[in-house]
UniProtKB/TrEMBL annotation:
Basic and acidic residues composition bias: residue spans: 409-447
UniProt-recorded name of the protein: Carboxyl-terminal processing protease
GO MF entries: serine-type endopeptidase activity
Record-linked Pfam families: CtpB_N-like (PF22694), PDZ_2 (PF13180), Peptidase_S41 (PF03572)
InterPro entries per UniProt: ClpP/crotonase-like_dom_sf (IPR029045), CtpA/B_N (IPR055210), PDZ (IPR001478), PDZ_sf (IPR036034), Peptidase_S41A (IPR004447), Tail-specific_protease (IPR005151)
Region: Disordered, residue numbers: 400-447
Keyword Manganese: no
Alphabetically ordered keywords of this record: Hydrolase, Protease, Serine protease
Source species: Variovorax ginsengisoli
Leading EC class: hydrolase
EC numbers: 3.4.21.102
Source taxon at top rank: Bacteria
Record family assignment: Belongs to the peptidase S41A family.
Length: 480
């Protein structure tokens, strides 16, 4: 990060808590503590003693303390979390893009575990799991009542072992079992290709340790195939976020040197920072500037960034920076709205605490928290529209979510109306054969938003959204 920051751990810029959690760098721990509330701590000790002595059967002291810490942190917001030994190890593994599991991003919905998206090429992806699938059982354990952390533990395991997931698929109104063999997940976070002469597509599915290097390799590969690229689509759809320094680097690849990418603000002095498009803000401790081999044309090539409701946190940083500097046209759907920074502090050799320490802001000073990035051009998922977009979970829908800090939140009656209409359409759609409801793969010739992005680059007509409703409160709409 910046030279003024003393690095001692990680700062997360990921989206929802998931089977693959991603992180970045951490600012220093707070130097002083506020006075402790002794009376309340005495009550806590008294409860601990009563449970230990009076409960119907013996309880494990370490588990009691661990559960107390977990409950305290979970009450803050959806992204703060206590890591025990196993989950802390898995958390750190996630930064490399390699871990053993089934390969899905998850969140919670109505007490169940919701599939945000299967990781491309993973066992879950090959088994046919889809976004919005609900996991109701993991082996013989009912999911309702489990925390996300507990669900992750049960789906992780040794490579080659099997886990039985019971899936409820809303749009087909059916429940079915899926047996998945765990394996090491090696996520490929960068894909890309020449779509047609002069026009290229690069997709980032996450921001990981290898993402910047893989991005540079892919750009070099594309420019070797076609040195006269006239337009580029940067696809951040369903990108849940990841490493903050990787997001700064990808932004810097397209922006002028020293342009502001993102700023953060929180209670700690170290949380008040500005990150710029310069090597000292994204270069790792060792090595050279990973962007120095990029073709100079990348700074000026016409650029469209594709986003949707699944684009969160680090991907919102990139979209917000490129939008504010007018470097790219943002197209797609309003993003998830996860605009907070999580600091991960070790509590010992094998446990840790992930706690929200700051909000982040686009270069214009706009908070994305619980709001998201509104595209310059709203594009539907298909020529028929995005009939179910209103049903998708956003940061503002999560229980105990952090407010934007820029005005009060208000329920949008138009969105509630759109949700009711979407539910009715979903009931009708569920009657159709499953093959008719299959969503085209990103990057295919049937990818409608990508086609519209290419049309924009070529100056051809673009089919704008027929169905989307912008989620924002009235006070903030006036500011924009």
């Amino acid at each position: 990060m910046g030279q003024k920051l003393k690095i001692t751990g990680w700062v997360a810029a990921g989206a929802v808590a998931g089977v693959l959690t991603t992180v970045s760098l951490q600012t220093v721990a707070r130097g002083s503590l506020a006075p402790l509330p002794l009376e309340e701590l005495q009550q806590l000790a008294a409860v601990f003693g009563m449970v230990k002595s009076d409960y119907v059967e013996p309880v494990d002291e370490k588990k009691l303390i661990s559960d107390a810490i977990s409950g305290m942190v979970a009450g803050l917001d959806p992204h703060s979390q206590y890591f025990d030994k196993k989950s802390f190890k898995e958390f750190r593994e996630g930064t490399t893009g390699r871990f053993v599991g089934v390969g899905i991003e998850i969140s919670q919905e109505d007490g169940l575990i919701k599939v945000v998206s299967p990781i491309e090429g993973s066992p879950a992806f090959r088994a046919g799991l889809k976004p919005n699938d609900l996991i109701t059982r993991i082996d013989d354990t009912a999911v309702r009542g489990l925390s996300l952390n507990d669900a992750v533990k049960r789906m992780r395991g040794e490579s080659g072992t099997k886990v039985l997931l019971t899936i409820f698929r809303k749009d087909e109104n059916r429940t079915f079992p899926v047996t998945i063999t765990r394996e090491e997940i090696r996520t490929q976070s960068v894909r890309g290709k020449i779509m047609e002469p002069g026009y290229a597509w690069i997709r980032l599915s996450q921001f990981q340790e290898r993402t910047v290097d893989d991005f540079v390799k892919k750009v070099d590969e594309i420019y070797k195939q076609d040195p006269n690229v006239k337009g580029l689509v940067l696809d951040l759809r369903n990108d849940p976020g990841g490493l903050l320094d990787a997001a700064v680097a990808i932004s810097a690849a397209f922006l002028p040197e020293n342009a502001t990418v993102v700023s953060t603000d929180g209670q700690l002095a170290e949380s008040k920072a500005v990150y710029k498009a310069a090597p000292e803000f994204y270069q790792r401790r060792s090595g050279t500037d990973p962007l120095k081999s990029l073709p100079a044309a990348l700074k000026t090539v016409p650029l469209v960034v594709l986003v949707n409701e699944g684009s969160a946190s680090a991907s919102e940083i990139v979209a917000g920076a490129l939008q504010d500097h007018k470097r790219a046209t943002i197209m797609g759907s309003q993003t998830f709205g996860k605009g907070s920074v999580q600091t991960v502090r070790p509590l010992g050799p094998d446990t840790g605490l992930k706690i929200t320490t700051a909000r982040y802001y686009t270069p214009s000073g706009t908070s994305i928290q619980a709001k998201g990035i509104v595209p310059n051009v709203l594009i539907d998922e298909s020529a028929e529209g995005s009939p179910y977009a209103a049903l998708r979970m956003r940061e503002a829908d999560l229980e105990k979510h952090l407010a934007s800090g820029q005005g009060p939140e208000a329920k949008d009656p138009e969105r509630e109306k759109a949700r009711d209409e979407a539910r009715k359409r979903l009931e009708e759609e569920a009657k159709k054969p499953a093959a008719d409801r299959k969503v085209p793969e990103f990057g295919s010739d049937k990818d409608f938003p990508l086609t519209q992005a290419l049309n924009r680059l070529k100056g051809a007509p673009v089919m704008v959204s027929k169905t989307q409703v912008i989620v924002d409160n009235k006070e903030e709409k006036k500011e924009n």
